[in-house]
Specification:
The chain has 411 residues and is an alpha/beta fold. It has helices spanning 6-10, 16-30, 50-63, 79-90, 108-114, 133-141, 196-209, 249-252, 280-291, 297-305, 309-335, 359-370, 396-407, and strands at 37-38, 102-105, 125-129, 158-162, 180-184, 212-216, 242-247, 260-263, 269-271, 277-279, 339-342, 348-352, 372-373, 375-376, 387-391. The structure holds pyridoxal-5'-phosphate.
Length: 411
């Protein structure tokens, strides 16, 4: 008899996006003539920019040449990329890091999920609510979430930090001490951000309470406002308490290519069960060298090219393309009287559903009456009820068409 990890069985069967897909497919079957526009799943639509494509071609040629062929690379990433990351993403913002504090991986999702490997099953987890579902689900798998409530909304051992219009989407410090706090800014799904002062408050809290912050900065490239920190390490003392996760997915269109990185500062210490301090960096290094064999050379050359002068200029143009969608969506939805959040420094628009409609009711009406697909806020957590997420990642023409349909909609 082979026993499975029972924690996996605790996860509710259906996943938000598969529920959405089922509803959309059912509608399409009944209305094959409907031209449905998806502003739902947060995938990009712009192609990889020429500077990056060129770098990949060159890397492919290297792989086909006996003199320049590369086999297994360093599990932590090639130095050519780690050094570019440090110079471009951190040093330019006054943050000093060493190359061995950067771990290149195949995207933020895997690192965020895998980081639990080095955490005790006893750790208490806190998440902002609503939240990117990966944080909660991977902790369920790791046995840290406890039991799901009868209404399916809360896990007994997870501390939820509500973020709603009432607190301007700024989570309040927890009343019960968590060991690990997930923060994602700019935020998916609400599209909101934290100011320097607000983020410093979290770093100070983590230092006072010996908590660990897992900071997901997957949407950092969408920040325009100078008052918003790009990295948690811009905050005083953050290296002692925070791990940062970055991704090339939304920044440079790598959702299909796969590349990201994780910063594990060497000064960050955790504890073993006897109370002895343990450096997190060698633990994560051990985890990666054991379970991961590195991101492909070609993809790392592609990521490197995102930092070249031309690559940087071209990816900024793609980001501007999406942010134009965000502005247009936001303005037009506000003009028809909807209450809108986010969308200024993030590619997500968080809509307050009108007339007290539930998130799913609003989803159904938008699908049936406008043929537009979005994401019901409640799918991201209990505090997402009564909200709805639209993404700016669609094609410009589709976004304009969606806006026009919504403008003619009798809500
Ligand atoms: N973190 C957040 C908040 C996300 O929204 C996503 C993807 O949608 C990810 C991480 C995953 O990014 P990656 O494609 O690098 O795995």
């Amino acid at each position: 008899m082979v026993l499975v990890n029972d924690n996996y069985l605790k996860l509710p069967e259906s996943y938000l996006f598969s529920d959405i897909k089922k509803k959309v497919n059912a509608y399409k079957e009944r209305h094959p003539e409907a031209r449905i526009i998806s502003l739902g799943i947060g995938d990009v639509t712009r192609p990889i920019v020429p500077a990056i494509v060129g770098a990949m071609h060159a890397a492919v040629d290297e792989m086909g040449n006996a003199d320049t062929f590369r086999g297994y690379g360093p599990e932590q990433g090639y130095d050519f990329l780690r050094e570019r990351i440090i110079a471009h993403d951190f040093f330019s913002r006054g943050v000093e890091l060493d190359a061995d504090e950067i771990f290149v991986g195949d995207g933020a999702k895997s690192d965020l999920g895998n980081f639990g490997d080095i955490l005790s099953v006893k750790c208490r987890i806190a998440v902002t609510d609503p939240v990117y579902p990966v944080y909660v689900d991977t902790n369920v798998m790791g046995g840290r979430a406890g039991e799901l409530s009868d209404d399916g909304k809360h896990w007994s051992r997870i501390i939820y930090l509500p973020c709603t219009a009432e607190n301007q989407f700024v989570p309040e410090l927890p009343t019960e001490r968590p060991d690990v706090i997930y923060l994602c800014y700019p935020n998916n799904p609400t599209g909101t951000t934290l100011s320097r002062i607000e983020l410093q408050k979290w770093v100070d809290y983590a230092r006072e309470n010996e908590s660990l912050i897992l900071f997901d900065a997957a949407y950092e490239a969408f920040i325009h406002d100078d008052n918003i920190p790009h990295s948690i390490y811009e905050m005083e003392g953050a290296k002692e308490v925070a791990i940062e996760f970055r991704s090339f997915s939304k920044t440079a269109g790598f959702t299909g290519l796969r590349c990201g990185y994780t910063v594990v500062p060497k000064v960050l210490k955790l504890y073993d069960s006897s109370g002895k301090k343990i450096q997190a960096n060698p633990l994560w290094n051990r985890r990666q060298t054991t379970k991961f064999n590195g991101t492909s050379y070609i993809v790392q050359r592609a990521a490197e090219a995102a930092y070249s002068l031309l690559g940087d200029k071209q990816i900024k143009e793609s980001i501007e393309y999406y942010m134009r969608n965000a502005r247009l969506l936001k303005e037009s939805l506000e003009n028809i009287g909807l209450k809108i959040f986010g969308g200024d420094n993030a590619p997500y628009i968080w809509v307050k559903t009108p007339n007290g409609l539930s998130s799913w009711k609003f989803f159904d009406r938008l699908l049936h009456e406008c043929h537009i697909v979005g994401t019901p806020g409640v799918g991201f957590g209990p505090s997402g009820e009564g909200y709805f997420r639209l993404t700016a990642f669609g094609r410009y023409e589709d976004t304009i068409e969606a806006i026009s349909r919504i403008q003619h909609w009798k809500l």
